Amino acid sequence: MDETKHTRKKAEANKSKKLMLEIKDLRKSFGDNHVLNGFNLELFEGENIVIMGKSGSGKSVMIKCLVGLMAPDSGTIKIMDRNLLGLDQRALDELRSEIGFLFQGSALYDSMTVKENLEFPLRRHKHKFGDLTDTTPLVQEALDSVGLVHALNLMPSELSGGMKRRVALARTLILKPKIILYDEPTSGLDPITSKEIIELMRSIQNKYNTSSLIITHDVDCARVVSERMILLIDGINYAEGTFDELKTSNDKKVKAFFK
Amino acid sequence: MYCQWHNFKDVLSIMIRTIQIKSFFVEIGELTYFAHRFFKELFSKPFEFKELLRQCYNIGNKSLLLVGVTGFIIGLVITLQTRPTLEEFGAESWMPSMVSISIIREIGPVIIALTFAGRIASGIGAELGSMRVTEQIDAMEVSGTNPFKYLVVTRVLAATLMLPILVILGDTIALYGSYLIENTKGDVSFQLYFNKVFNVLAFGDIIPATIKTFFFGFAIGLVGCFKGYYCKKGTVGVGLAANSAVVSSSMLLFVIDFIAVFVTDIFFEI
């Protein structure tokens, strides 16, 4: 009961904050497979929301819709008051510079060094930093945030899984995004490295005051990072609340996630 | 019972064949749309000059040794194989003319294009395929760079521009290989050999053969990129993309070659 009050208080506190991302009635189907059946979400400034769901429940589809990698069948997506689905390519690219996306497998460019990987997003968005002639300070700052300044000239093949994830995180940070989308940030990592990545996510949020949407199966990650959680089941927001609220829920489907 | 089973098998095989034919035409349609998108993106800003130069260097440099060795062996083999027959008729002096026409018009462009397809189409198919399955192409799009323009346009253009240069180089090396055999077996001087070569070659031999290599290069780059860019099914898909890029582009080369010879026949009267 206290926790419900806490959620309500939190919701009231959020009302004073800026709405960064708003999803309404998002639907997406692949043939007869209805993946998203009216998903809704509100993400406020500085907030961390964790989305959990079974494999194939539409989490990755939803997150790809948010950056325009997939087009939903219907629904609205508003990012910082701009309707994503009505944007032309140029405006979409501009908006993308405000959104960082950490891919599940890091998605570092194999043929480029760490430095070139980090410089790549700057090719189209240099103007964001005024008259930028030398990208090195920005690259070093981003790498410093993830503790990997020494890896500047290494190739992705020379990095461990955890290092790759950190470099990918640095690449999302280089444009100083306001929203970061994490697609299973700890998947495929050992528990110690996972813990390091989770800590890094926390410190990045404190440093850059970003809003984060995190898709994960990792209960530890959800516990540490989340301020609010959404369980995505059958393409809808099946349950919503804080980690503790959901953990103590009596609903069978919700309980299954915390076993 | 046996008759029913037989009928069912017949129906099944017709269905499978229909699906295969349908998917073939669907693929042709998709490839045509891919080519249409290439031309649309080719003339729209921003232009990726730096990446184009890098791809030209990569594609040209990677194939240089292969093309050189292939050309040299073509020259040696054709001369060695043909010489005894010409000797029988006392027509050895026709050797440089015959070898140069067959190499410049047909054998050089086709064989060098086929080795180029084996090297480059598979490489592009595998590279873009692995970028697709590891979400690198998605990452590029999210970072505001048009992946089609950066990856596809540059590679197709580089293959289109590099193959003609490689074919000219390969043909030259092939003629030199042929000269070496002629010099060893028939004591023909360098000057005499190449005088005969240039006396017999006309614009009608060189220009159409060079023009068709642009189309060969375009087809190899386009098919390699198409197979890799739309690669599915994880790492298995990458292998399939590389494999089918070589097979499809080689098939396409022969179709283009036939059309090129047909058109040349109309305009240049071979």
**Share in β-strands of chain A:** 15-25%
Q: Based on helices, strands and strand pairing, what is the structural class of chain B?
A: mainly alpha
Task: Give the CA-CA distance, first to last residue of chain B.
Answer: 61 Å
State the helix count of chain A: 11
Number of domains of chain B: 2
Which key terms come to mind for this protein?
heterodimer, A: 259 residues, alpha/beta, Rossmann fold, 11 helices, B: 270 residues, mainly alpha, globular, phospholipid transporter activity (chain B), ABC_MlaE_roteobac (chain B)
What does this molecule look like?
The complex is a heterodimer of chains A (259) and B (270). Chain A has a single domain, classed as Rossmann fold, CATH 3.40.50. Chain A is 38% helix and 24% strand. Chain A has helices at residues 2-15, 59-66, 89-96, 114-119, 122-125, 136-145, 161-173, 191-208, 219-225, 243-247, 252-257; strands at 19-30, 33-44, 48-52, 74-79, 82-83, 99-102, 179-183, 211-215, 228-233, 236-241. In chain A, the strands form two sheets. Chain A has a six-stranded mixed β-sheet, sandwiched between helices. Chain A has a four-stranded antiparallel β-sheet with strand order 2-1-4-5, with helices on one face. The model of chain A has no long low-confidence stretch (mean pLDDT 86). By secondary structure, chain B is an all-alpha fold. Chain B has two domains: 1-44; 46-268, no CATH class. In chain B, 89% of the residues lie in helices and 0% in strands. Chain B has helices at residues 2-42, 49-88, 95-133, 136-142, 147-186, 190-200, 203-229, 234-268. The longest helix of chain B has 41 residues, at 2-42. The model of chain B has no long low-confidence stretch (mean pLDDT 89). The chains are: A alpha/beta (259), B mainly alpha (270). The A-B interface holds A 64, 67-69, 93-94, 96-97, 99, 101, 103-105, 107-111, 120-121, 123-125, 171, 175 and B 127, 130-131, 134-136, 138-145.
